[in-house]
Design brief:
mainly alpha, 3 helices, flat
Amino acid sequence: MFKKPFFVGLLQAIGVIAYCILIAWMFNSLGKTNAQPPGILGFAAILVVLVFSAGVTGSIVFGYSAYLFFKQQKVKEPLLILLFTSICCLIILGLSAIIYLII
């Protein structure tokens, strides 16, 4: 059950959404402080977080699919996992937008 493409895609989508929520919460919390506007080091830190986030989310989304493709020589399953991950991310994003608009 845990190796089915839809289930793996759903778990990956939940992981990406959870990571994005964590980063958004961090930036939101930083914005509520009465600190001075960020200088050059603040902008550099934001860019480092952006690069790190791209690596983390890329690993979540492409890591298992790349493993299946390169190490186990499978083609169909990794593509299905990427498709289901994308679809699940869009569905979760759409549902959260609808809930946000209702509330």
